[in-house]
């Protein structure tokens, strides 16, 4: 809204003070370069009121898909169910199952309406901006601290449609490239593009466990996606055993990726 001078609001100080606070909030959370954020130690995430609700909902959807539950409580149990999702089926089947889980979190009509009515606005920019902000606000319980940031678009412009995850808790706790790729990265990209009409490229960093979401940008073909060529993580509990038993190059590749 554009402020209008009125006798009812004689003091301009109130308006300027509020505006300053609003600008401050955006500048601290979105404009800091990625390189500067990576140089810092990841901030400790402080649990929020609805975190347990979100975790329980997501875990229950995974249990329904796998038909199995872990005996461990909380996030540890969620990670075990995520690993279970990769058992007994190939990677494509795992990705399809993960997409079904994501779809089940939303009312079907909501997804369809978003794809039909919101996604086309301003050539998709508005939808990309929206989902970036919702992701940063609602998914920190799963990924850890993150913030909206600017990404470069193919047409040479930039848009505040990125989300930078400082150190992904899901990747760190799963300790598995394959779990990241087939239960998170690829199915999440598919979900947003096919069911919300928003292209998404996710760029996980398997060295520092950060991850860059780029809403509004199409991902590369899987054959040329570097993330799918990553070797096992150093923290993978099974990687050392495989390397000792098999010294060829394939032994270093995650069997779940």
Set down the secondary structure blueprint.
Blueprint: H1 12-30, H2 34-39, H3 51-66, H4 74-84, H5 91-104, H6 108-118, H7 125-138, H8 140-143, E1 146-152, E2 158-165, H9 169-174, H10 177-195, E3 200-204, E4 211-215, H11 239-245
Explain what this protein looks like in three dimensions.
This protein is 49% helix and 10% strand. The protein has a four-stranded antiparallel beta sheet with strand order 1-2-4-3. It is built from eleven helices and four strands; from the N terminus they run H-H-H-H-H-H-H-H-E-E-H-H-E-E-H. The radius of gyration is 21 Å and the shape is globular. The termini are far apart. By secondary structure, the chain is an alpha+beta fold. The model is unreliable at 2-31 (pLDDT under 50). Strand 3 and strand 4 (211-215) form a beta hairpin. Helix 3 packs parallel to helix 4 (74-84) and helix 5 (91-104) packs across helix 10 (177-195). This is Beta-carotene isomerase D27-like C-terminal domain-containing protein. InterPro entries: D27-like (IPR038938), D27-like_C (IPR025114). Residues 141-222 form the Beta-carotene isomerase D27-like C-terminal domain. It comes from Datura stramonium.
Note the main attributes of this structure.
globular; 49% helix; alpha+beta; Beta-carotene isomerase D27-like C-terminal domain-containing protein; 257 residues; 4-stranded antiparallel beta sheet; D27-like_C; single chain
